[in-house]
Amino acid sequence: MITYTSGKSLSRRTVLRGAGVSLALPLLDAMLPAFAKTPDEKKAKRFVGVSLALGLHNPNLVPEGAGRDYQPSRYLKSIQDLREDFTVVSGSSHPGVTGGHSAEGSIFSACPNMRGTTSRNTISLDQLMAKQLGHETRFPSLVLNTARESSPSYTETGAMIPAENDAIRLFTRLFVDDKPAERERQAELLRQGRSVMDAVASEAKALQRELGSADRDKLDAWFTGVRDLEQRLVANEAWVNRPKPKVDLAKPTAIPRDNEVGVQRIFLDIVHMALATDSARFITLHITGNNVTGIEGVDESYHNLSHHGMDDEKLRQLTVVEQAAIDAWGDFLRKLKGDSLLDETMVLLTSNLGNASSHDNKNMPVLFAGGGFQHGQHLAFDQKENYPLPNLYLSTLQRLGLEEEGFATSTGTMTGLEA
Amino acid sequence: MLPARPIALFLLFTGAPALDAAEPPAALASFFDTHCLECHDADVKKGGLNLLDLAFAPEDSALFPTWQRVYERVRDGEMPPAKKPRPEAAEHAAFLSTLKDPLLAADRTAIATEGRVRSRRLTRTEYENSLHDLLGIDRPLAVLLPEDPESHGFETVASGQQLSYHQLSRYLDTADLALDEAFDRALKGDTAYRRDFAPAELIKNRAGNYRGPELRDGRSISWPITLQFTGRMRLTAAPESGWYRITLKDVAAVNPGKDGAVWGTLRSGKGESDAPTLFLIGLVEATKESRDLVYEGWIEKGHLLELRPNDATLKNAPTGAKGGNISYEGRNLAKAGFSGIAHRGITMERIHPHGDRAEVKRALFGDEGLEKWKDQAAAAIEPLVARFARRAFRRPVTAEQLAPHREIAQTALADGAPLPEALRAAYRSILCSPRFLTLVEAPGPLDDHAIASRLSYALWAGPPDWKLRQLADEGALRDPDKLTHEIARLLEDERSQRFVRSFTGQWLKLKQIDFTSPDPKQFRSFDPVLQESFLQETRAYFDELVRENLPIDHLVDSGFTFLNGRLARHYRLDVPLKPGGGLQKAALPDYPLGKVRGGFATQGAILKVTADGTHTSPVIRGVFINERLLGVHIPPPPPGVPAIEPDIRGAVSIRDQLAKHRGSESCVSCHLTIDPPGFALENFDPVGAWRTQYGTGKKGAKVDPSGTTREGDAFADIISWKEIQRGRDEALARGFVRHFLTYATGAVPRFSDEAILDSILAEAAPEQHGLRSLITAALTSEIFLTK
Questions:
Q1: Which residue among A210, A242, A274 closes a domain?
Q2: Is the pLDDT of residue A22 over 60?
Q3: Does residue B377 sit within a domain?
Q4: 3 state SS of A302
Q5: What sign does the dihedral B380-B381-B383-B388 (CA atoms) show?
Q6: pLDDT band at residue B387, thresholds of 50, 70 and 90?
Q7: Chain B contacts of A253, Cβ < 8 Å?
Q8: FRET partner for B376 with CA separation of 20 to 30 A, picked from A121, A275, B297, B390?
Q9: Could you say which of B167, B634, B639 has the minimum Cβ distance to residue A225?
Q10: Within this chain, do residues B602 and B563 fall inside the same structural domain, yes or no?
Q11: Same domain, A123 and A187
């Protein structure tokens, strides 16, 4: 996926598609092709990873009691109608991942990191999925962030994928057609881009001769990058002539910048439509905004609330914000369920921080829904000796039909999670 | 002592140099037997290290780091651990000398054949500066590229830079945008814009919530009203994205404070609640005497100006109306004693700070312009593409290197594109080439052009100018005198301000000044003016150290700093400052509140970036001060250490909590080094204000800033801590040079570089390790001049 930033470049660089009649089909018709082909075998097709940069307050999240008979925690009360659709996991985390906020890069890669070292990140779960299964949709993956450009999505060369952080632009890229003249120009730029990549590849080859073996790794990354981009440019040229789907969702006009959960909802609504129209199947949304004073009863910034330092008032406000975030996630699940998408879509809500106040990366919050798994349970692992969360990631890969034998530091598939 | 192994004995007696590659020499083997193998054998493998299984092959790059670590831990006396018997001095020395030479040899061979640095890529700041210098354009480009990851504290470090097609596609798009601007300006001309807004006009366009200035007696006045966007002026919306010069006429303070000024900000932004971000153009210091203030800044199309007092210590004026509307009717805020900023109008004009249209044309079409190639477009391709490539690649370009780009232009021309379009296509591919985007350096001593590029990216964060390129063409840069002369010239040039900004942004983490916003309830005095003043202070201080070649101990202490009126108040300093003078160099008063402020550690910017919005941590500050200023590397914490749960209620200080943490043996060895500077800085809250108690309202626990350094020197507070650090010139200088060379070369100095570091320090020693001397010595050293 080519990502774009400035307002100006947006209209011009948005990948285009064919003139053609814009068919104002009702949503369900537009969706039909994608669903008609659904195989009978029980297999998931999609993955959505929602990550919170500031964690969830564990005492409010983790339920009493394990297994199917758990007592809903404070946060989970509002989504009990979905009880059979999700699993709550406690006492799990990524082995060897430390560094507080800086562990964000490992949320979906589970790559062990140590503060201050230069170890390279490894491919994130969504990108591994997209690499193998993402070629059928307009966007192999969507990498989204409510506020910043950083993302927990990494390529196999360990490069962070810059996130789309503008909901209006995202909507335009997914669902709004360019004018014919603009499409023409875009097609030309895509073609030119391919010849530029040819030139870049031959330059990298020449440099390999000039610089000897020392810089081989670096130049290899250039070759990989050029090859991948060429493939994307070819694919984008093909998409140019296909109509973008029409959706029953208005383009957002105003982003509530004082209400991070409101922004989260806008993004999730678009993600819902992206899934429903089969525009993308592998999506991450990183929630990083700091402004929550637009939420009733909150008058401090999100980050400062997360550093509650045991202060009662801060904890009270933090609870309001986090409850709202969970409610938004629940509404997203309800929409997927209403469209019969949930059984084929795995939806994860997690964070790199198990305790934001102390920057602890253990005991990550984990809510996992959909994908045809048998949910309705609390998988309670040891809060001191954490269970490896990469095992869940391996389970999701296998559920997609991928024959991976491991992911990062996994030791097997997730104990207690059955399809 | 256990007997050495037979094989080692045999070799010892025969002195045979042809060791079995995997067996360590005798002196090492016997030392291991005696001191190490109890823990580091196949059974125990403490810390994951099994010395019996560690092949003695330091030339193997996979094993080198382990052998280096073994050497350093024994050298520094960390191993064997304190509770075990000490090796005898002779034994210790023999071990080190036996291990050192093979390590040095292996490291030097690796550097000679592969170099220290692998294809370092331009950071996005360097990319922007490069395109601005290359094309004469001025649109911000860095924001269009992904953020650069940081490694060893710097974005320039090649080993931390990764590449993917996402990055490449951004390069493609950004080059396109930059070329759009350049070709548009060259072919269509610049758009002129100039408007004068009288005070009476600035209150126009009152649709929606009025948040604008008051019009009174012919002047436009902004008041400190807490509503968002107070002071926005809708009429000033920019017609196009671009650089503007903004003149505020006859700016004067209404009811100035004791420092003779009212402090405010001039910002641009959409000024709507769905796009609340405001971009600082500059600080406004309104004084009793009225004067014109001139600013230059990039403003996005449709963004308007907002001018308001922005000093959190000012008393806020009421809005005067319900529903968020500001109304001045029937009120006289000046008489009521509120402070405000008044002026007599604003002039906005479009400018092009990086080059006029002629310059852009020259950059694209050469000195003689397109006219020269009328009717012979085909002949223009080769010379113009070659010229552009030489400048973009910062070195001569062979026909073979040029071919792929030239062909793009030729194909375009053959397909019927006009000459500018054909050139544009080739320039686009040149700007995506690794020869532009990375520093091309072959193993061994650098050639002149590689030196020129390293030098200009080090001191200008941008490409070489024509003069530096010319010297490279002449082969002059390997001459130490000429190189030294160029270093001086580059440092004198205005472009060195880019270095000050970029280097301090990374070294002292000033880029992170925005990462957390201080809790406004706890830290009421913090405001945007203060934050910007913090940055200005630290940058100006570093600039002064370099410019005046001040001794290295100025990193930790000095008798002066840079202040403006607002900052002086925040630091509670009574110093003579000229009202309206902005940031000024000022001697620090001799009383404690003055003395504490000398040196980087107690500057507001450093205190803020090392704290989060609600509390301070001696550990975070301690690590920062050790690593960034004192030249002491702190290893990461061992895995599985539980973090400390902060408690901001005030009753428990973090110091009490840390005491428990330090009680454990595995923690204490590092925390003896980490914590002391952090303790000394506990007298400063997250926004850098002085405090003697935690919590708000003086109800919290008392701050205890005392401690003992690792070396055993006790200090009572930050003042005596600084005294101790001032005696550590060599260590401070070595730390600084390592940081600077890491930034300037894109790789951390290596094991075998220590001797070169020694000579750099020796060279600068006569100048008390002045910063400029250190920088010059570093830039003329083998580390800098070799890949």
A1: A242
A2: no
A3: yes
A4: helix
A5: positive
A6: very high
A7: 274
A8: B390
A9: B167
A10: yes
A11: no
